[in-house]
UniProtKB/TrEMBL annotation:
This is Sulfatase. The active site is at 82. It is a multi-pass membrane protein. Its main location: membrane. It comes from the Bacteria. One of its GO terms (cellular component) is plasma membrane. GO terms for molecular function: metal ion binding. Residues 30-329 form the Sulfatase N-terminal domain. The chain holds residues 221 to 654 of 710 of the full protein.
Amino acid sequence: TKSELEAVKKFTDAHYASPNKSMYGIAKGRNVFVIHLESFQQFLIDKKINGQEVTPFLNSIYHGSNTYAFDNFFHQVGQGKTSDAENMLETSTYGLSQGSLFATLGSDNTFQAAPSILKQRAGYTSAVFHGNVASFWNRNNVYKNMGYQYFFDASYYDTSGDKSTGYGLKDKLLFNDSVKYLERLQQPFYAKYITVTNHFPYDLDSEDEDPNFKTVDTGDSAVDNYFVTAHYLDQSLKEFFTYLKKTGLYDKSIFVIYGDHYGISDSENKKLASVLGKSSDDWTDYDDAQLQRVPLMFLIPNSGGKGYISHTYGGEIDVLPTLMHLLGVSSKRYIQFGTDLFSSQHDQVVAFRNQDFVTPNYTSISDVIYSNKTGKKATLTAAQKKQLKKDQTKVNKELSLSDSLNDKNLLRFYNPKGFKAVNASKYNYSNGLD
Ligand code: GP9
Ligand code: MN
């Protein structure tokens, strides 16, 4: 009902963070590439194995002078995995506590998502490039409700034989074979690339392996192969960027590069520990939580070289308002649970979907508070306890209001200024060949 919507709106309004003036609009009018690095965790960045970087190309972006990167950025997905990440990134609302929002609510809900907002506010064309079938995670329906104009799914590419692995077209082929569609998009565009090759169980044909890259030998094949497919993903990006630089698209764009969620699960982390130079003996929930960091980078080529690596704490929920402000589009009128990572008012309490949370100083797991300094259970003053109680209350409230918004489809009652409701029936993603 409308009063339920009011409660949500009151909360998001109260938490709104105004933009950082020095960042607002610095990517205005540029094309947007959202590059979804499948199962990609932050520890891969700058990681060396047998003296070799696993992801040299991404590392060069990470340290590049026009890149704003975050090293305390967390995924916040639940069971909806990739689809939860997509939902958070493009709506700044949470996934559900059970199942996938895309799958359960995505066909019927009202969305006020990045593609429709950017189309209506700044004239952006929108498209998704993905090498899996369109129905996976119910994307064919959800994307229409989000206002995506084009969805170049598996049917647009030759995915036969060894061109695919478990979740679809290999990344190098996706980037290469999508170019003929990308080139026809009206600029400015908002284009999302969802990679798949770096996905459990991290299979790669030997023909795609870099003979010069030798992985670890932990005895856990998922851990060992994870580095091999991450290395492949890195090479695929390098090839794509070579193309973009050649055509000049590179300099006219902003790149949002992020990891969607963990690739190595908690149960395998002890095997990973030795690779990370840690002992698995006293491995705790705290250590698992720290590994939920994923990369987030905003690369803005030729933008004056003021980039840096920020240690601000944040999560996937925060990406949309941050991106909008970089593009010079105010986020104020929308219902969004995240806040601009560059804003001095940004809230650094990062909620996980199960109500655990991380702050710059503490990690809270099932009500146990760990100190980020020591990694051990924290000894807390009364004032610190009080603050952490407040943080927990906020996390719970935020998650439950997001659930209320989505479960009850409350956005259908919400009319932000100038927002025209998306008409999903306008879009037809079927392959133009038939
Ligand atoms: C498949 C891909 C994988 O299309 O996006 O999703 P995940 O299994 O990571 O949720
Ligand atoms: Mn995924």
